[in-house]
Amino acid sequence: MVIKPRIRGFVCLTAHPEGCAKHVEEQINYVRKNGKINDGPKSVLVIGGSTGYGLASRISAAFGSGAATLAVFFEKEPTESKTATAGWYNSVAFEKFAKKEGLKARSINGDAFSDEIKDQVIDLAKKEFKPFDLVIYSVAAPRRVHPKTGEVASSVLKPIDQTYDGKTLNTDKIEIHDVHLEPASEKEIQDTITVMGGEDWEMWINHLNDAGLLAEGCQTVAYTYIGTELTWPIYWEGTIGQAKEDLDKTSARLNKLLETKNGKSFVAVMKALVTQASSAIPVVPLYISILYKIMKEKGTHEGCIEQIYRMYRDRLYTDEPQTDDDGRLRLDDLEMAKDIQAKVNEIWPRIKTENIHELSDFEGYRAEFLKLFGFGLAGVDYDADISPMVGFED
């Protein structure tokens, strides 16, 4: 079939296998170009390792440090008439590139929240991997079936205790319009914490520890975003922010556990980027479009792979990891620079549909969004008739 992007809202319903492979290769080449990570990880588990920061974490560990990697993700496989999800093609391509390099790479596709998948990981890791010296937790999901109670919780993007009125960007119509959000109920707040908080991360670390699969000096990292006052009402001060606060509390508990192994737990604060998760958050696509223009002009823009490679090289694998007062790794330092944020705040009240291309990098935003699904990459023939049936090699 000839595979073209089919976009509905903030989701692309198709993915291009060759384009996804090219996108993975680009990230691998970035790591190769920038050199080895001194004293980096050697045995790595990435929970949520098929797209975005999770995929970049896997690539950086493998091609920057020669690590054996095991990734867990929940992706849709292809059929003869439908493409797989982008994360499926990304992971197939990653394994192909890794094995060509002589690097061990295994993947498990399934619900990371479930005990069944945790047990599968433990069984495979005991057979084929050394105890993990790095565990990355990069799961962004809309819902979670609790493995103990069977209850289903769904996350929401809402403010707390007050309504929110602001502006957002319709990326399909390229229109800026007003957005109104009602405050979350107490149940919605708790459900969002259940899905997006730290409970599952802690379950994973406890399972791995009980199985003897955490190496001496093991580190674990979960990703978060704090952002700026423009996004706080529906993010950091909203339901997602409550979940991320729970992530911080979880990290503190995990630190106590890992102290016995001379290990460490971190929450890493990342930059605002185009990801499948961020595209769904009101206000954020407009903010990112403005931010991209400013940071690109200043020469400080980074994507997922640049952020993660820098985290490994300059934060995790240094004699003294740089943290803020709350013990977090800050990779949002370039975004939150005073001059960058001052410029964002100067543009924000002036931007409207008529001047969006002048005052923002919407085209850059849209190009990055399409790349997530394997579209718009140089060297790929998007008019070619290809099979969507791409799978993992034995």
Please explain how this structure is put together.
With 394 residues, the protein is α/β, with parallel strands linked by helices. The chain has a domain at 7-141 and 187-281 and 301-334: NAD(P)-binding Rossmann-like Domain (Rossmann fold, 3-Layer(aba) Sandwich), CATH 3.40.50. The protein is 40% helix and 16% strand. It is built from 12 helices and 13 strands. It has helices at residues 17-34, 52-65, 86-100, 115-128, 186-196, 199-210, 239-259, 284-298, 304-316, 338-347, 356-359, 362-371; strands at residues 7-8, 11-12, 43-47, 68-73, 105-109, 132-137, 143-145, 152-154, 164-170, 175-181, 214-224, 264-269, 329-330. A 7-stranded parallel β-sheet has the order 5-4-3-6-11-12-13, with helices on both faces. Strands 1-2 form a two-stranded antiparallel ribbon. The protein has a two-stranded antiparallel ribbon with strand order 7-8. Helix 3 links the parallel strand 4 and strand 5. Helix 1 packs across helix 3 (86-100) and helix 6 packs parallel to helix 7 (239-259). The radius of gyration is 20 Å and the shape is globular. The two termini are 25 Å apart. The model has no long low-confidence stretch (mean pLDDT 95).
